[in-house]
Amino acid sequence: MTAAHTTVEPARPLVPVLAVVGVGLIGGSFAAALRASGAVGKVLGVGRSATSLSTARELGIIDEVATLERAGREADLIFLATPVGAIAPMLAALKPCLRDSTLITDAGSTKADVVAAAREALGERIRQFIPGHPIAGAEKTGPEAADPALYRHRNVVLTPLPENSGGDKAALTKIWERCGAKVIVMEPEAHDAAMASVSHVPHFLSSVFMWQVATAQDSDLRMRLAGSGFRDFTRIAAGSPEVWRDIFLTNRPAILAELQEVKAALARAELALQDADGPDLQDFLERAALARRFWGSRSGLS
Amino acid sequence: MTAAHTTVEPARPLVPVLAVVGVGLIGGSFAAALRASGAVGKVLGVGRSATSLSTARELGIIDEVATLERAGREADLIFLATPVGAIAPMLAALKPCLRDSTLITDAGSTKADVVAAAREALGERIRQFIPGHPIAGAEKTGPEAADPALYRHRNVVLTPLPENSGGDKAALTKIWERCGAKVIVMEPEAHDAAMASVSHVPHFLSSVFMWQVATAQDSDLRMRLAGSGFRDFTRIAAGSPEVWRDIFLTNRPAILAELQEVKAALARAELALQDADGPDLQDFLERAALARRFWGSRSGLS
Fold it and tell me: For the segment A83-142, what is each residue's pLDDT rounded down to a tens digit?
């Protein structure tokens, strides 16, 4: 990485050549954030959609469209912002053309599965890969949705491997901080369990609910009466089906385990409703409301 | 009602004296909207919290604090914006002091239960009560949250009774339209079934989920990693426990029936996840995403 260079030559950017694989919301916002903070020299864009790449170039998010091979040869940092299922094939394709000094990171929403696949794909070059997951997103997709402020004040989890060097870990932390993010270091499995709870299960439930309402016989009438509560509860269900299918498949055991917990809680609340038990209903509603209000005041997100 | 008067004396407001019972978000916003549109003369505020009433008066939402009895004697329109469980006792207390020309409506989130209780409480004066439900709200509560624009472009369901006069129904429709709302007329039971689906079940699920996360052993870590999806999915769980306890209790059969449908859909999606069935997962995610995006583009709410 180039952290050492920046102290010697201050004019040299933190990341002389950045390659972003997947120039949508996540990858495009990363490139835009680094460019806005003056941390990047040239940005190469890699992807399968010619339209997205062309839009990203028109918007100034990337400077040039490149192949994966060129990214491996030229980039100082490669940011993989593809669906989780595409990360391992990308790493396998990158391996033969990687320079020794190239650092790779990703934005995959699951980490244990990605780490296992990365070890297989990269072999001894696994030291060049630091797994990451920015906790940020929106229901919008594509390069048009890219926003240099997307990661500001957001958490980014890194799950470094024993093979990663201290210098690379420090450099990647600094890069994320230049995007305005706060870095949290965790084990991959702890990350996956926590994300199953606060991200994957809510998405699963929101999508199941939306699907159930949409397939009801009187769905038109129902949806006419849907208000702001429905809007908020179902917003995540509009997210990319492909991205979320991959997340569900790669974090399957943790999600299935967490769903059991949620169903047990649901059964308890349903029993209170069946029994028309007002105090019990109010008790669980109060605990939920207090916890949500406390979270809202601390998270800076609501 | 005063609809006839306004054509004869244009200087006379649509509602010369409005009484709002419950001066929080819903009642306060109704008063503020009518005042902003010049549709109201004097506003009386009725409630059990001296603090809320005093705040509402300081904010100019109400002109005077009044007893329920005075509201019954003086008001042309009484708007009941209390928790659903308090509507019947209010109507019973109002009955002995009601003028013949006073119209009463409510903002209760359930209607069949309210209609039954209103018939019992009002007897022959049931003709003066037109049940209503504005589909609007926010997680904030209290008179400070009152907003004259809360009902703009929102749907308001009225479930008129056979005893209501055509003149009264037209007058109440006009009043809601002055708040910027669109009036939909429905049967109480159809309203309750639709609301169970698109409002009550989402609130139940969001609260159950929030409660489950908050009571987990590692809830602190989980909540640090919670992002914008969590924020949206759990926003409604911050709502008033008392209000929602009453809604759940008064619309219990419809909610329990709808919960069975959601659980059946969940079981089907869970099976696809257990089987790691990518195409099946993607299929349900796609249907949900398309339906949500279509709703968002039509509803004007997202």
Answer: 888 999 999 999 999 999 999 999 998 999 999 999 999 999 999 999 999 998 766 788
CB contact under 8 A, A236 and B232: yes
Whether B269 and A215 lie within 8 Å, measured CB to CB: no
Element (H, E) at A258: helix A252-274
- Between positions 261 and 290 of A, the ones with CB within 8 A of B are 261-263, 265-266, 269-270, 273-274, 276, 278, 281-282, 284-289
* Edge-to-edge strand ranges of the sheet holding B103-106: B64-65, B40-46, B15-21, B77-80, B103-106, B129-130
* Domain identity same for A105 and A224: no
Cα–Cα distance between A290 and A284 in angstroms, integer? 10
Residue A201: closest CA among A263, A154, A159, A116: A263
pLDDT band of residue B10 (cuts 50, 70, 90) is: low
**If pLDDT is split at 50, 70 and 90, which confidence band does A39 have?**
very high
- Do A287 and B215 make contact, defined as CB atoms within 8 angstroms? yes
Q: Are B287 and A208 a contacting pair at CB < 8 A?
A: no
Question: Among A135, A169, A186, which residue terminates a domain?
Answer: A186
Asked if A38 reaches chain B (Cβ–Cβ under 8 Å), the answer is no
Kindly report the CATH number assigned to the domain that includes residue B227: 1.10.3660.10
Interface test with A, best of B195, B208, B277, B298 (most A CBs within 10 A): B208
Give the residue from B26, B147, B222, B233 with the most A CB atoms within 10 Å of its CB, the best one to mutate.
Answer: B233
* Domain final residue pick, B165, B186, B207: B186
- Give per-residue pLDDT as tens, B15-34: 999 999 999 999 999 999 99
**Which band of pLDDT confidence, cut at 50, 70 and 90, is reported for residue A5?**
low
Flag if A216 and B288 touch (Cβ within 8 Å): no
Q: Are residues A100 and A176 in the same domain?
A: yes
Q: With CB atoms and an 8 Å threshold, state whether A223 touches B198.
A: yes
User: Shortest CB distance from B229 goes to which of A155, A236, A245?
Assistant: A236
Pairing of strands B64-65, B77-80: unpaired
Q: What is the pLDDT of residues B157-212, one digit of tens each?
A: 999 999 999 999 999 999 999 999 999 999 999 999 999 999 999 999 999 999 99
Residues B109 and B73 in one domain: yes
Same domain, A22 and A141: yes
Same-domain pairing of B86 and B182: yes
Which H/E stretch holds residue B43?
strand B40-46
Q: What percent of chain A lies above the pLDDT cut of 90?
A: 88
The per-residue pLDDT for B30 is 98
- How far is the C-alpha of A186 from the C-alpha of A192, rounded, in Å? 10
Could you tell me the residue range of the domain that residue A233 belongs to?
Answer: 190-299
Structure tokens at B217: 């052993």
Question: Distance of CA A16 to CAs A27, A60, A136, A212, B229, Å?
Answer: 17, 17, 25, 49, 34
β-bridge partners, A132: A158
What is the complex's ipTM, to 2 decimals?
A: 0.80
Domain count, chain B: 2
CATH code for position A62: 3.40.50.720
- Contact flag A205-B234 (C-beta cutoff 8 Å): no
Whether B22 and B54 map to the same domain: the answer is: yes
- Let me know whether B99 and B227 are in one domain: no
* Same domain as B32, residue B48: yes
